[in-house]
Specification:
Mean pLDDT: 89
Order of helices and strands: HHHHHEEEEHEHEEEEEHHHHH
Structural class: alpha+beta
Oligomer: single chain
Largest sheet: 10 strands, mixed
């Protein structure tokens, strides 16, 4: 039993939508000769369960970082004109059964783990990830992520720690977020606006209780009315070199991280787990993130217009079939064997 055989088994469970540990093992047993050419080995149910429980998940956490670095060289840039890196920050609960995973108790009758994610808008890749217990505050997960200097991080108003925002500013990192309705501030300067959708563009000084703990620098407040819905928003940012319309567009792009959470939950196996220990659950989550990066690498390197959902479905239908991968992704039919000696079935 090797860690690569474990990865192949878990990847098969994710891509082929296998329902149980026994289901995964039976699927791999049927592909014994093909596993040999892949460099993996058939696995027994007890061995796979033991490795999932005992071998540390941190191996796949490190693999995730390696795969992200490989994808960066092929990923397209985000669609904005500025050159700063752009990340969306958010978290999402991964539901578990309380009767099977009592150690992951979240609320009355519920259990879950929490995935904190920084999504790179260059190719919409998961760049930073932290998996914690469900009761962990979002700010504790956010403080563990290290964004590069000069990047722009967009997040919702749930990340309301003003001290953390000041830490981002001191580190040379820009942010865009929604302003809370109970925010207390005073206006220092009113900038002229020439956009009908922009109500105001102000420089403000926060004066609430958190102001007494540390000196917070003035920040920019943008009032914006969405032309599509007519809804009014207030955006808080430390960016001065971009227009108010761009600030609004940056926050609108934050929806991509919500779409990522929806995609990974619907297309990979994160609703049923092959082990009951915390290590087994974390292993399966990190393997899912690694598979997402592998699918993205296939998409970027092959330069196909297919979505990750379409690529995952193609692989699901063609797992362990000897096919040219580029021909499969580009929709080319398989070659026709003209000299086949196989007898035709007559009905």
């Amino acid at each position: 039993m090797t860690r690569f055989s474990q990865f192949v088994a878990l990847a098969t469970g994710h891509l082929a939508r296998r329902h149980s540990l026994r289901d995964v093992v039976a699927n791999l047993d049927a592909q014994g000769s093909r596993l040999y050419h892949l460099g993996a080995r058939p696995v027994s149910r007890t061995s796979l369960a033991r490795v999932n429980e005992e071998q540390p998940y941190t191996l796949y956490e490190e693999l995730f970082g390696k795969l992200y670095a490989r994808c960066l060289g092929h990923a397209p840039r985000h669609g904005f004109r500025f050159t700063n890196k752009l990340y969306s920050l958010d978290s999402s609960l991964i539901d578990l059964s309380l009767s099977i995973f009592p150690w992951a108790h979240y609320a009355l009758g519920k259990a879950a783990m929490k995935l904190h994610l920084g999504l790179d808008h260059d190719g919409f890749l998961p760049a930073f990830a932290v998996v914690t217990e469900s009761r962990t505050n979002d700010m504790m997960g956010a403080r563990q992520l290290r964004f590069p200097k000069g990047s722009i991080v967009v997040f919702d108003k749930g990340y309301s720690d003003y001290g953390w925002r000041q830490d981002l500013t001191d580190a040379g990192i820009f942010f865009v977020t929604r302003a809370r309705g109970n925010m207390i501030s005073k206006v220092l300067h009113e900038k002229p606006v020439n956009n009908t959708n922009v109500a105001f563009d102000r420089l403000i000084q926060l004066t609430g209780k958190q102001k007494t703990e540390r000196t917070l620098k003035p920040q920019r407040l943008v009032g914006y009315t969405c032309p599509e819905t007519g809804k009014f928003y207030e955006f808080l940012t430390n960016i001065e070199h971009l227009s108010a319309q761009t600030i609004a567009d940056i926050y609108k792009s934050r929806w991509q991280v919500e779409l990522f959470f929806k995609w990974i939950k619907q297309n990979l196996k994160l609703k049923g787990f092959l082990g009951t220990s915390k290590n087994a659950v974390l292993t399966q989550i990190w393997v899912a993130l690694c598979i997402t990066l592998l699918l993205a690498f296939l998409k970027f390197s092959s330069q196909v217009a297919l979505s990750l959902h379409q690529i995952a479905r193609l692989l699901q239908l063609n797992l362990f079939i000897r096919r040219d991968l580029l021909q499969l992704l580009h929709g080319e039919p398989p070659p026709i064997e003209t000299n086949s000696r196989q007898m035709a079935l007559s009905i």
